[in-house]
């Protein structure tokens, strides 16, 4: 493998493995299963060649004139895979079946012949209670007990699953040399607020009690999440404090849903952005919340939570082309004002969902490295 291709080695496999046969996170399953992973000696991989610069086919859109070219290439591919009807006009069942950013990224990787080597992370799925499933990612060859990251995927509490965010989870596990426990929480509209939040806290408590059973260290546990999952990780940190449960060592919040105000500066600026935009966020709220009153609940409206003191140190990562940018920054500022140590980093030229795209988007690799370093320092 040539030098330019090998630098992507640890981030490529997660994406292709997700598309090559990892079981979807069906919370109705009732057995503990080892997920199928590919054998490096038998896996068929694209031939490695000189990695060309990833370029979009058209000009930057009006809604993102400064978008990074690699990011735009993924968005263009997502547009080509999607139908003409915008997702906020579809049913949750329809959106769940539609191509996601994961498929778009995989298509870009295939177009540019980016190889997909085996990722040295084993996975096992486990039901921890009726209707609540986790997937445990363990770096191969690591000696334990290892620190643990409890991870909550995105999707507005309505769509997506652990497969959709498999690349992020594998990257974090590999880069931190920690066990990552991905949580397949219940989703709306079938299970309205606070179902996802209750499941998220229950999974965190399960990890504290059972970490030793999968070679984890129950005294070194952090929480992490993207988008809705970032909001869930923040909420779990608050619930742990308020209920007298062991606090996470760190909270990684990647472009979290942290508020209910859809008139913030970034909502106004990125009304038509992709893949997340204002009407789509309204659709998520409608499908998860029982009523608009739930939007004012401190577990949803984190930026207006009455007490943010004595919470774990936080890393907050933002995307510049994202309606959630303002609330993420506001939440970071309010945590810091409450005395919580915070690292905040904004990546201005990328969109929502960029994290985990390190195989094709340079800013994503930078964000993954930042997140991993912050977690490693917290979990020493």
UniProtKB/TrEMBL annotation:
**One Pfam family it belongs to:** Abhydrolase_3
User: Keyword Signal, does the record have it?
Assistant: yes
Hydrolase is among the record's keywords: yes
Q: Name one GO molecular function term.
A: hydrolase activity
Q: Where is the secretion signal located?
A: 1-23
Q: Kindly give the SUPFAM superfamilies that the UniProt entry links to this protein.
A: alpha/beta-Hydrolases
Key words, A-Z: Hydrolase, Signal
Residue ranges constituting the Alpha/beta hydrolase fold-3 domain according to the UniProt record: 149-355
PANTHER family, sorted: AB HYDROLASE SUPERFAMILY PROTEIN C4A8.06C, ALPHA_BETA HYDROLASE FOLD-3 DOMAIN-CONTAINING PROTEIN-RELATED
Tell me what this protein is called: Lipase
Species per Swiss-Prot/TrEMBL record? Hymenobacter amundsenii
């Amino acid at each position: 493998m040539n030098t330019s291709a090998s630098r992507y080695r640890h981030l490529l496999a997660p994406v292709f493995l997700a598309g090559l046969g990892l079981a979807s996170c069906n919370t109705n399953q009732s057995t503990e299963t080892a997920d199928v992973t590919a054998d490096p000696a038998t896996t068929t991989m694209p031939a490695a060649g000189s990695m060309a610069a990833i370029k979009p086919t058209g000009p930057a859109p009006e809604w993102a004139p400064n978008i990074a070219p690699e990011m735009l290439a993924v968005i263009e591919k997502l547009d080509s895979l999607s139908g003409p009807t915008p997702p906020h006009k579809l049913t949750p069942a329809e959106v769940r079946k539609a191509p996601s950013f994961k498929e778009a990224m995989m298509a870009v990787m295939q177009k540019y012949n980016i190889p997909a080597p085996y990722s040295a992370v084993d996975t096992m799925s486990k039901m921890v209670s009726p209707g609540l499933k986790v997937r445990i990612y363990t770096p191969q060859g690591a000696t334990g007990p290892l620190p643990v990251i409890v991870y909550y995927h995105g999707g507005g509490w309505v769509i997506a699953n652990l497969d959709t965010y498999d690349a992020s989870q594998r990257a974090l596990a590999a880069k931190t040399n920690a066990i990552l426990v991905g949580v397949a929480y219940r989703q709306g509209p079938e299970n309205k607020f606070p179902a996802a939040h209750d499941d998220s806290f229950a999974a965190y408590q399960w990890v504290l009690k059972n970490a030793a059973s999968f070679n984890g260290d129950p005294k070194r546990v952090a929480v992490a999440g993207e988008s809705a999952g970032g909001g869930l990780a923040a909420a779990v940190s608050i619930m742990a404090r308020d209920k007298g449960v062991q606090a996470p060592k760190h909270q990684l919040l990647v472009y979290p849903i942290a508020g209910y105000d859809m008139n913030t500066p970034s909502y106004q600026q990125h009304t038509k952005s992709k893949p997340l935009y204002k009407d789509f966020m309204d659709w998520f709220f409608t499908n998860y919340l029982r009523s608009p009153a739930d939007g004012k609940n401190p577990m949803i409206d984190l930026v207006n939570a009455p007490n943010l003191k004595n919470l774990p140190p936080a890393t907050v990562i933002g995307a510049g082309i994202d309606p959630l940018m303002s609330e993420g920054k506001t939440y970071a500022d309010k945590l810091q004002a409450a005395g919580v140590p915070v690292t905040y980093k904004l990546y201005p030229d990328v969109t929502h969902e960029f994290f985990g795209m390190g195989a094709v988007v340079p800013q994503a690799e930078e964000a993954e490295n930042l997140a991993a370093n912050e977690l490693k320092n917290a979990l020493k």
